[in-house]
């Protein structure tokens, strides 16, 4: 436990931040900027680890999940993205429902507890396709939690269905959606959003959609895409907006900073993020988002090696087995497309942490050779 060590830094801007963290006081924008500006990664990490251990002790959470991307056809042409395709472009695909059900059942022998479902904004697929997709999956895999559709997809589906966002969410919920993933948030600052994802809903609409989902009893995650053309002020603004909504609803479970992968995107001239930026994004988030229960080091995005280290810099979750990742692999990721349960456990144990398999709602999962039980 970090409490046995003394906090030390030569970075004068960090000292008042440390005082607040140790007194369990909320950080303000200028504190967050000091964290991002600091090169004393060990001091920033010490503070984040202190908070992480205060909240979770030595536990690091992971889950056994499968990603399903029903289509990569997308009307938006976001510069940040290497996944989306126009309808008739080479490589464009849309799964027939049967194909999606088969994909859901395929993969490793470890029984999955979560389907993570996101895809492109397809101009022609009717809303009924998505309702059938979800209800068909629920029927075939009743024990699996369905975490599906980003706020951006929800807003798009509402347009396709000619329904309010509220009614769209309600229909998806009755079809079997259990919670929502955190994607599509990117960076809320309009100046940046215009350049990296001009056709998406704006930051305020993302927040408003998340608020509605939370009010309807759907938990969600939140992400931030960093390492492109944003600056520290944009990152801090993003975090504070998420923290503000969490104060209102308490509906966020996990924050996931996502490093931009430029390969195969229109922004391919940009450089990839550095280890310092990745680790600081985890640590700063842990310190600023004092009302978020979990900070996830998504190994697919950070590489298993950096994600492992992040467990000592504020992260308490590594995400899951994933099995078949497409979004980062289309953008040049060289990580494996999935990890086995045992590999995740090793990454956690070697960092001196205690692996806790969780379901999507962070309830512990117990496995035997023949059964999977969720503690409720
Ligand atoms: O919204 C797209 C990002 C997100 C690129 O909620 C890119 O548990 C980097 O949100 N380089 C989708 N990032 C992934 C996502 C996610 C992942 C894991 C867990 C959860 C969760 C959510 O991926 C998109 C966008 O921000 N993205 N293209 C790219 N070239």
Structural summary, described in words:
By secondary structure, this protein is α/β, with parallel strands linked by helices. It has two domains: 3-52, no CATH class; 58-365, Aldolase class I (TIM Barrel, Alpha-Beta Barrel), CATH 3.20.20. It is built from 14 helices and twelve strands. A four-stranded parallel beta sheet has the order 5-6-7-8. A three-stranded parallel beta sheet has the order 9-1-10, with helices on one face. A three-stranded parallel beta sheet has the order 2-3-4, with helices on one face. Strand 7 (252-259), helix 11 (275-288) and strand 8 (294-295) form a beta-alpha-beta unit. Helix 4 (97-105) packs parallel to helix 5, helix 6 (151-161) packs across helix 7 (165-175) and helix 11 crosses helix 12. It is globular and about 60 Å long. The structure holds ligand V47.
């Amino acid at each position: 436990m970090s409490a046995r060590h003394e906090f030390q830094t030569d970075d004068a801007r960090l000292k008042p931040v440390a005082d607040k963290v140790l007194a369990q006081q909320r950080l303000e924008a200028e504190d967050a900027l000091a964290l991002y500006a600091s090169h004393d990664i060990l001091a920033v990490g010490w503070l984040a680890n202190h908070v992480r251990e205060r909240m979770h002790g030595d536990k690091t959470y992971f889950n056994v999940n499968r990603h399903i991307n029903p289509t990569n056809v997308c009307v938006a042409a976001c510069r940040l993205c290497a996944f989306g395709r126009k309808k008739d472009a080479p490589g464009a695909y849309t799964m027939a429902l049967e194909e999606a059900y088969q994909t859901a059942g395929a993969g490793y022998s470890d029984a999955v507890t979560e389907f993570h479902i996101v895809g492109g904004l397809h101009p022609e697929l009717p809303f009924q396709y998505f309702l059938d997709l979800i209800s068909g999956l629920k029927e075939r895999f009743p024990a699996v939690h369905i975490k599906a559709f980003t706020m951006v997809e929800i807003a798009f589906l509402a347009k396709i269905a000619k329904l309010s966002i509220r009614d769209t969410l309600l229909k998806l919920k009755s079809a079997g959606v259990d919670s929502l993933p955190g994607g599509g948030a990117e960076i809320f600052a309009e100046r940046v959003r215009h350049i990296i994802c001009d056709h998406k809903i704006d930051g305020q609409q993302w927040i408003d959609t998340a608020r509605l989902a939370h009010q309807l009893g759907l938990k969600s995650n939140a992400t931030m895409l960093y390492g492109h053309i944003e600056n520290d002020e944009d990152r801090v603004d993003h975090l504070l907006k998420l923290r503000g909504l969490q104060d209102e609803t308490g509906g966020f479970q996990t924050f996931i900073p996502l490093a931009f992968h430029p390969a195969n995107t229109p922004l391919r001239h940009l450089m990839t993020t550095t280890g310092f930026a990745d680790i600081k994004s985890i640590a700063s988030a842990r310190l600023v988002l004092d009302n978020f229960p979990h900070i996830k080091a998504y190994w697919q995005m950070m590489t298993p090696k950096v994600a492992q280290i992040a467990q000592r810099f504020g992260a308490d979750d590594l995400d899951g087995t994933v099995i078949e990742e497409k979004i980062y692999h289309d953008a040049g990721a060289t990580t494996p497309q999935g990890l086995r349960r045992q590999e995740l456990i090793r990454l956690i144990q070697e960092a001196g942490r205690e692996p806790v398999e969780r379901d999507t709602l962070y309830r512990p999962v117990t496995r035997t050779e023949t059964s999977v039980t969720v503690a409720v």
